[in-house]
Amino acid sequence: xxxxxxxxxxxxxxxxxxxxxxxxxxxxxxxxxxxxxxxxxxxxxxxxxxxxxxxxxxxxxxxxxxxxxxxxxxxxxxxxxxxxxxxxxxxxxxxxxxxxxxxxxxxxxxxxxxxxxxxxxxxxxxxxxxxxxxxxxxxxxxxxxxxxxxxxxxxxxxxxxxxxxxxxxxxxxxxxxxxxxxxxxxxxxxxxxxxxxxxxxxxxxxxxxxxxxxxxxxxxxxxxxxxxxxxxxxxxxxxxxxxxxxxxxxxxxxxxxxxxxxxxxxxxxxxxxxxxxxxxxxxxxxxxxxxxxxxxxxxxxxxxxxxxxxxxxxxxxxxxxxxxxxxxxxxxxxxxxxxxxxxxxxxxxxxxxx
Amino acid sequence: xxxxxxxxxxxxxxxxxxxxxxxxxxxxxxxxxxxxxxxxxxxxxxxxxxxxxxxxxxxxxxxxxxxxxxxxxxxxxxxxxxxxxxxxxxxxxxxxxxxxxxxxxxxxxxxxxxxxxxxxxxxxxxxxxxxxxxxxxxxxxxxxxxxxxxxxxxxxxxxxxxxxxxxxxxxxxxxxxxxxxxxxxxxxxxxxxxxxxxxxxxxxxxxxxxxxxxxxxxxxxxxxxxxxxxxxxxxxxxxxxxxxxxxxxxxxxxxxxxxxxxxxxxxxxxxxxxxxxxxxxxxxxxxxxxxxxxxxxxxxxxxxxxxxxxxxxxxxxxxxxxxxxxxxxxxxxxxxxxxxxxxxxxxxxxxxxx
Lengths: 354, 354
Prior knowledge:
The structure is a homodimer of 354-residue chains.
Chain A: H1 28-42, E1 54-56, E2 66-74, E3 80-81, E4 84-85, H2 86-99, E5 103-115, H3 120-137, E6 141-149, E7 157-167, E8 183-186, H4 192-201, H5 218-227, E9 232-236, H6 242-254, E10 257-261, H7 269-278, E11 292-295, H8 300-308, E12 317-323, E13 330-333, E14 339-341
Parallel strand pairs in A: 5-6, 10-13
Antiparallel strand pairs in A: 2-7, 3-4, 5-7, 8-11, 8-12, 9-11, 10-12, 13-14
Helix pairs in contact in A: 1-3, 2-3, 5-8
Organism (chains A, B): Roseateles oligotrophus
GO biological process, one term (chains A, B): protein maturation
Domain PurM-like C-terminal (chains A, B): 179-332
């Protein structure tokens, strides 16, 4: 209830300042935080409108084009980890959800829940990382919101982002589209993001630094679709729950089964070693810069070649095949010649990984 | 790291169950929570796609039509208050931000940050309230996300919603459009939302129950635009920081001043009484179902009549006028014949009001 008298004619003291409840109250302190931290980093014509929403002219939509919206909350702990932070992650995570419809992302929005006492310096670092990721992806953050909760009622910063994208006519990508005989492709090695976050959280030092694979995948998707426009049936990024859980979601959605080849699934040796040490299975570890593609058999080779020609798909591999299976099992031919069922992640393996 | 073996073939125990970390891990527990709580309530063709984004065909956009996106985080405390809860608030708040561009809202997305241990019964109550608000507004929640943070790292539930809407050709509403001579209209009495939340938070019992005004305003906006298509220049909902702060934002954006008539600003007697008791000024209290409209002078009467003919604008009033002022002051002719400057809210008055 106290009206704190502050001198808003001076710039924020980013180096020593902390988030206080006034920064979320919608008054002058909130306006100053928005201008000097968020606007300064995200700067674009839409945010400069200064209204509660951002108005824009959509690109011309040819007949048959559709739009896609995706939203994702980001609560990763710790906020900074090898290879990234919650800021760039919140941009990549939502861009990737948009891209998994085969869409070209257009715009992003961002909603922040800040904890009282959070260092403005850390906030600025996170916001600058978001801005850099958005700029690199060519997708502006056009509107946002900031709330502040009392110390002990949040955890530094949570970021929810929402993306809007355009799906070109003729692109029909959805989790329910896999058919027996289709080929399962994976864009690269699995497990880096989860292991990088966990190693930071637990202060583990591995011999070789394992860094998150966090990256925006819409460029890779565009290259794949250009190579075989109608040949990609399903795209999905194996984040929480990892490759195993994501493939189980897909078999359930499509009403099919899958058979994987364990030897074909790329895992970096250092991730393999870390997982062994920690008692984790890389199949269940989150990724933030990888995708699974289910392709028509006749398109698989050209899609795979397009992936391997892209910087984010150099280690892409054919990892399995879709089959008919009324139980919707994901099975795996193991390195040792056996076959086992790869089940869903059933409890918590790694909480707050994204 | 423990793999909790649970029987997911049984429905969730909503009556006694609580959110656990597994509900945020992206595995089978998360899928069950989403199906039995979120999908069950929000049920629509887009969510049933079951993908990480929702694909839709936009309505035909005539030449000159634009789109608008708005996003808002909701951290109100307590989660339930007289007249509403964080669920319906998270729908109304974002719909209103979309509507303040003069747009027709099309779709909503929702991102949840849940605290471990939160009662599933309360979650269901909130989600059902969101679903009812979305249905009443005619705007489906087409995609969403759920994260879980450890006990003590959140506060029950935070909800970030994002809305997409269409602005018809010829509608040009923005905070920078007010001009000297324009008329300032207010759609009804101020202060109810903030006082309702505060009374619940502080367990105050007033003689007359004060309930939040939370409501979706896009229908009211449509009626106003139909009455005077080009006559509405600015729309804004006076939420955090209240009427006073919102008008100061507008004078700054438009580079003008304003003169208000205190006697013309509607305040319910019970709100006036509660504010006096609590040492609050209704001018700074949040509203969630009111709007300010700045209109061309020749359009003001017909816009006001359209507001008063709508259920959410029955108490609409002409509260002041825009003037030229290089200082961008909001001034007020008081009930007692004086004139004073109505400044921005400068610190925190009421934290976590929305």
